[in-house]
Specification:
The chain is about 55% helix and about 15% strand. The protein has about 400 residues and is α/β, with parallel strands linked by helices. α1 crosses α4 (about 95-125), α11 runs parallel beside α12 (about 325-340) and α13 packs across α14. The termini are far apart.
Length: about 400
């Protein structure tokens, strides 16, 4: 029966996952007119669950029949024996009644005990997935002697860093660079070059294979994750918002932030006027994943959230790559204001957005192939210059097409 119950739970989890996946990606479902396909997929998953549930229930029914048969046979045997004893004068009528009463009082609790035992077993099977998750050891854990990160300036250093998500395919090869405190360093390169991996390593979502990453001389592996992540703020390419109010999403940057602090951050991100223009103001809900807001508005909320956090180190991970040129220019002004005075790592696709960086790193296949200022890299005529020329030509073509 345990195997049947596990099969039923597995199919139930699959059906639930299928439904949740379809609901979360409802726009894609509608884009491709795939409602019927998703309904069939969910129906098939539910059919598998139904079959498993029927098997499990049949097994339980046969078990109950067997248990009841044994109990009734024993009761019948005891009754027959006691009646026979009365007929031959061995037992009195009171003895017969006493025997039946005692057996009834005995077997009813035994039946209940069997039912409770089955319920407990089924509950434990249902919770196996949860227990397995709780027993899973964290891949990234604080060292026993880890100390809080003390940020004195916010200087970041990658020293001969190698990294791979999978041992069979290396992502970063001997990457070394330094971001002095308060400076802005940009990382550019084609897709798959390893740019965004740098931000994940800096947040210590993963540990590196070799080399070291330090902040103000403190190795990330020697400090607590909580203190590390409190010191870093990020504006990602794809801003994910909670299905709550705009005020809640901005306030998420700092626990127990006051309304005045939330509004001050929104003003710095140039989204306050938009918010107060909404019917519900800061209490307006943004919808699932922020679907009620445009891309630019979501990015401004993300910027305000980061301003409220007030981190010493800022990461801009292709924060404007999905926006149109007009919105991008407006957002860039806000990003420059946020990064002023902070150690900033910019991961960019559009080179025009990082021309003012103190240093630009050009990555290819997990290696830094060029580094320097915007002007120096253009003068060198290498990979960066080729990328700049290509993007300039694309921008000119778009401008001519618009005219």
């Amino acid at each position: 029966r345990n195997a049947l119950r596990r099969e039923m739970v597995t199919h139930d989890n699959k059906a639930t996952a299928r439904a949740v996946d379809a609901l979360l990606n409802y726009e894609t479902v509608k884009y491709f007119n795939a409602e019927a396909h998703e309904a069939r997929g969910y129906g098939a998953a539910m059919n598998q669950w139904t079959e498993a549930a029927i098997k499990n229930q049949n097994s339980l029914s046969w078990l109950n029949i067997g248990q009841s048969a044994i109990t009734n046979l024993m009761m019948g045997g005891a009754l027959a024996y006691s009646v026979w004893g009365w007929s031959v004068g061995r037992f009195a009528v009171g003895d017969v009644v006493l025997i039946q009463t005692l057996l009834t009082q005995l077997f009813r609790p035994l039946d209940m005990l069997g039912m409770v035992y089955r319920e407990i077993k089924q509950g434990l099977i249902d919770m196996e997935a949860m227990f397995k998750l709780l027993d899973t050891e964290a891949e990234i854990a604080d060292a026993p002697d880890a100390r809080p990160l003390i940020v004195t300036g916010g200087a970041v250093r990658f020293d001969h860093v190698d990294f791979a998500y999978d041992a069979r395919r290396a992502i970063l090869h001997d990457v070394s660079f330094t971001i002095p405190a308060g400076h802005k360093v940009a990382v550019v390169g084609h897709s798959g070059a390893g740019k965004s991996t740098l931000s994940r390593i800096l947040y210590r979502f993963y540990d590196i294979g070799s080399g070291s990453v330090t902040i103000d001389g403190q190795d990330l592996r020697a400090v607590t994750q909580d203190s590390l992540r409190r010191a870093i703020g990020i504006v990602p390419q794809d801003t994910v918002l909670f299905n709550d109010t705009i005020g809640y999403n901005i306030g998420y940057g700092r626990a127990n932030a006051t309304q005045a602090q939330i509004e001050a951050a929104a003003k710095e991100a140039a989204i306050h006027d938009f918010i107060v223009g909404l019917p519900d103001g800061y209490n307006a809900t943004v919808g699932e994943r922020g679907l009620k807001l445009s891309g630019g508005e979501k990015q401004r909320v993300a910027i305000a959230r980061t301003i409220l956090k007030d981190p010493a180190i800022l990461i801009l991970d292709e924060a404007t790559s999905a926006l149109d040129s007009g919105t991008e220019a407006e957002i860039q002004d806000s990003l420059r204001a946020v990064g002023r005075g902070r150690t900033t790592l910019v991961i960019a696709h559009r080179l025009s957005t990082i021309a003012d960086a103190d240093e630009i790193l050009v990555m290819a296949e997990g290696r830094i192939v060029e580094r320097g200022t915007h002007g120096a890299l253009l003068a060198r005529g290498g990979v960066y210059a080729e990328m700049w020329a290509l993007q300039a030509a694309e921008a000119e073509s778009e401008l001519m097409a618009a005219e």
